[in-house]
Amino acid sequence: MNDLELHIITLQNNIFSGLFVGQNLITINKVDSTNNYLKDLLSNSKPVSEGTVIMAESQYAGRGQQQNRWHSEDGKNLTFSILLKPIFLPVTQQFDLTRAVSLGIINALEPHLGAQLKIKWPNDIYFENGKLGGILIENIVQGNQIKNSVVGIGLNINQDTFPADVPNAVSLKQILRKDYDLKLLLSDICKNIEAAYLNLKAGRLEFVRNAYLERLYWLNEHKMFKAGGRIFEGLIKEVKDNGLLTVFDGDVTSEYNQKEIEFLNK
Ligand code: BTN
Question: Is the pLDDT of residue 45 over 90?
């Protein structure tokens, strides 16, 4: 047995009720990042089946959006990556995958958290003003097609406290005052992501886009933003098909990408 194998337990799966997401589940005690692990697997080995899930109890170099680190207390939360192969989706429509994955997570958590559960554009999972989780999708593109998509998801589940430098993080336990079974939650999330993904695959784009918009945090609310060095009050109007956020500042409506606009909480 080599060093790597020592840390890996591949589970015979019986609590995963979907067709393919989670049917091949690899759990790892400790890894740098489940996204890295899955990408290495894709480049080093035999074909990896769609829906393969890599779940880690602990990540020592978890990655977040925009080169941030993703912090998660060992063994307390969900940190996992799913392999999807959305070859039916042109690269120009990759934001629809973000929508489907966000919706799958929302639908899985809805029975626990209800209507206060929102998607903060582009793909943060929010409860009221706290960040419950985030998504890091890394696409491997060939020509105009997405050959492989590594969908990394981090959700705060049983963590009791967070470091001072992540002041807006919140966990399911902090909200509902009880511990959750991580595997059961994972299986529910996989089932719901699969359902949303299959809607996308079946061409039900409008359904997925509308459902995403209905859950959008701060949609049509007067809030403060910062863009281009300017602080202003604005209203989120919509998310364009390509994923750009449109905000009306009382004068004009402008489109922003993720790096161009900041939500100010006060
Ligand atoms: C964000 O910045 O909000 C995205 C966070 C994504 C974190 C998850 S945890 C599992 C997967 N592996 C990583 O290194 N990152 C993602």
Answer: no
User: How many A from CA of 80 to the centre of ligand 1?
Assistant: 8
What is the domain range of residue 123?
6-214
Q: What is the pLDDT of residues 124-171, one digit of tens each?
A: 999 999 999 999 999 999 999 999 999 999 999 999 999 998 889 999
Helices and strands in the chain: count of H runs, count of E runs: 5, 13
Q: Indicate whether 159 and 251 sit together in one domain.
A: no
Residue nearest to atom 2 of ligand 1 (CA): 64
**Could you tell me which residues come within 8 angstroms of residue 193 by beta carbon, excluding any fewer than 6 positions away?**
21, 82, 100, 101, 104, 105, 108, 151
Q: Residues 93, 190: one domain?
A: yes
Q: Please check whether residues 229 and 257 belong to one and the same domain.
A: yes
- Looking at the structure, do residues 204 and 187 belong to the same domain, yes or no? yes
pLDDT of residue 4: 47
Instruction: Report helix, strand or coil for 19.
Output: coil
E runs forming strands in 129-205: 130-142, 145-155
